[in-house]
Amino acid sequence: MHKRIIIFLAGIWVFGFAPHTLSAGESAFKEALKLDRQGFIAESIPEWDRFLKTGPEKNLAIFAQIKITLAYSRTANFGEALKSAKALAIAYPDHYDVQFSLGNILSATHQYDGAVRAYSKAAAMRPGEGLAYVGQGLSLFGDLKPEEAIQVLRKVRKLFKEQKNIGWYQNVRIMIGQIKGFAPYPPNFSDLWLANNLKKVRDTYESAVFKVFEKQLNL
Measured between alpha carbons, how far is residue 80 from residues 73, 135, 203, 205, 208 in Å? Predict the structure, then answer.
């Protein structure tokens, strides 16, 4: 009798109370996120890929693919970063973070006409968020359209003022003045200035805007 009770209790432990075994997708996601947060950026890429092959739901798939794009970009593999961002934009063209991510990598690789389109789409999706307009305006300047760039930047300067976002209001006000000041000089005179300001857009996106998307996933 006692032996039967022991066997019964053992069965309850095995089938009812055994520790949860992570699925392949959960395991890959946890490992990728751990590596990313520890600063092992290049090492996280295969784990993100492994996770995506398990067919995750939409928002997690978008998050992982953007993480891959960022990882390639941070490790200076811009060809793969661009390939990743473009593939994601084909799959999810109406997602704000997808278009912003595409705009970031296109502007980083000096493909300003495409960056303008991507940032414009992102801005249209969330007209109350000004950072995409800044990316759009700077990319217009990179595409040798300073007048159009100033128009967009004036628009977002007004938006930042209404939102009392003093930091970016001042940044944009200075940008407008500097773009006007570049007029007498050859286009390449402003290359370093443009690269630094676009990097500021990318850094702000990663540290603030993308973090909002990440928090919504409750990781």
Answer: 8, 21, 19, 20, 24
